[in-house]
Amino acid sequence: MKKNKLLIGTAIACVALAVLVWFAFSQQSSSALTFSPESRQQSGAKMIESQNILNLSPSEKERLSQQHIVFNEVEKDQLHSKANFPLLKNAKGMAIKYDPNVIELKKVGDTVKFQMLEYGINRTGKIVEIEPVDQDIIRWTGRFDQGDPNQNFFTITQSQKDHYTIMQIFTEKGNYSAEIKDGVGLVQTMDEGVTDQELHHDHP
Question: Which of 3, 48, 156, 172 has the fewest C-beta atoms lying within 10 Å of its C-beta?
């Protein structure tokens, strides 16, 4: 009799333990499947941070993080002779100098400025999204403070490994794109320029 009670007690204990283990596992699984948007954004930000580690001194990071102007206009003769724009259709446009680390240090909510006086554009905007696209390629999306936000926005898609950046700038005055390689580039009207879909790792 005692033996039977012991066996029944052991069986009940085993069943109870199995139920507890199953319950704990199902709770973990469901919490893993129900990440909040904030959790996903934080994990995405950590992924971006780990992908593009900047080998800069703290003082240099501080200096660059204070910069809001995305690029600076230069004379075309200031573009070095070896400037190579893989997708360039023609040499028309506004020549620019660009430091990719300025955008790399920007976070969601940070302010940026586009000064394109050759096209009559002088806009301030804010970064609204940062997303990894492929391996080390990152895209920053922002909205300008002026005008209809559906018509006034920008994207900056960049590969630090390839030292290559494509920007798309949309305004009610016109749409523009920039192709930048090794810190120099050209801003062109959209029909002359390129799109960020054309940024791949096979660029030289």
Answer: 3
The values of phi and psi at residue 102, to 5°, are: -60, -50
Per-residue pLDDT of the chain (204 residues; tens, 9 = 90+): 545 554 455 545 444 444 443 444 444 443 333 334 444 444 444 445 444 456 778 888 888 888 899 999 988 877 765 567 767 777 788 999 999 999 999 999 999 999 998 899 999 999 999 999 988 899 999 999 988 888 899 999 999 888 899 999 999 989 999 999 989 999 999 876 566 665 544 444
